[in-house]
Amino acid sequence: MTDLVIPPRPLPGTRLLFRWRKWDGSDHWVHECVYLGSDEWGDWFGQLAGWRSFRPGRDFLADAPNVTLLPPDGDHVVTLNQAPPASYWVYIDLAWDAHWEDEEPSGIDMDLDVVRALDERGVFIDDRDEWDEHRVDFGYPADVVEKLEALAVDLERRVEAREAPFDQATADKWLTRLEGLDLP
User: Which DSSP string corresponds to 126-159?
Assistant: First the structure.
């Protein structure tokens, strides 16, 4: 059995970019963020209001602070918003191989998302149409499809039940840490 090698992490408060790509290697979202630290759930990042998120064809500034969790298994990434103006509380990007790369977080966006909306939509799995299209266009392997479809259903259940780390207390801890940083 080999020992798991954990790459060194930056100091909390270090600004960096979280880079996403698609299965074919093409560019996807890039988020300006700050490393906040880690806990039993994984590594946490924060984004302040006014920080940039962009991808080909889209560019916007965050309306409110949010925090993002990169779990060690790398099969999803969780973003938790503080409150409106965000339209959702929990947004989970199903991922493939989300990990640290060249001292920054990176991952492959796998289309499916689990969302807890702040309106009457509640908790749901989003972007099934994009998932169905990209499964064919990008040729997702059958074992990847099976794993991520099951994971989406499990995450939807866990978000609905407000299990940690999809609960208010976990989010509040990291949002408070983000607010307490002395950032320019």
Answer: E-HHHHHHHHHHTT--HHHHHHHHHHHHHHHHHH
| Apex 143 CA angle, 137 and 146, nearest 5 | 85
Residues 63-119: pLDDT tens digits? 899 999 999 999 999 999 877 777 889 999 999 999 999 899 999 999 999 999 988
Query: Is the distance from CB of 123 to CB of 101 less than 8 angstroms?
Result: no
Tokens 């259940």 identify what position? 157
> What is d(CA 181, CA 184) in angstroms, rounded to the nearest whole number?
9
Query: Measured in whole angstroms, how far is the alpha carbon of residue 173 from the centre of its chain?
Result: 17
What would you report as the CA-atom Rg of the chain, rounded to the nearest whole angstrom?
16
Supply 134's token pair.
């990209």
pTM: 0.93
Residue 124, strand partner residues: 115
Helix (H) or strand (E) holding 170: helix 168-180
